[in-house]
Amino acid sequence: SGRNYVIHYNNLEPVLSFQPGSVFRASLGYRMGLKQNEVDLGGEKAEIHKFSLELKRISPKSGNMTARFSLLRISFPHSENSPVAYEMLEGFRPGFNLTWGAGMQRALGSGLQLNLNYDGRKSVDSKAVHTGNVQVRAYF
Prior knowledge:
Elements: E1 7-12, E2 15-18, E3 24-37, E4 45-59, E5 63-75, H1 83-89, E6 95-109, E7 112-122, E8 129-138
Antiparallel strand pairs: 1-3, 2-3, 3-4, 4-5, 5-6, 6-7, 7-8
């Protein structure tokens, strides 16, 4: 019974992008999210504010490069140790959280593409978590 929940949510997510030419783009975003579990299933509420910045460089010769940074502020005055809390908090913790990342996509020749990605995240009272991956795709 502790794993049952029905979450109602509303999001507002405006994004402002600036692209002075075909090579560079900067985007500044904000998301406000409100989530509430059904009252008879616990009635938990979460309020999430996310500020984000993304920079992207597009070049046919050197490939695409992207950098991202986000700051999240989450209000959740309930227990964090439940399945509904994990879902409502999107894997973060109440308070301030940071996420960042970088990626590169490049053609290695005809039919091959290299993707390099790095992501990091930091929550309140926890160490930073770093992940990365490398992918080579063959198109035929």
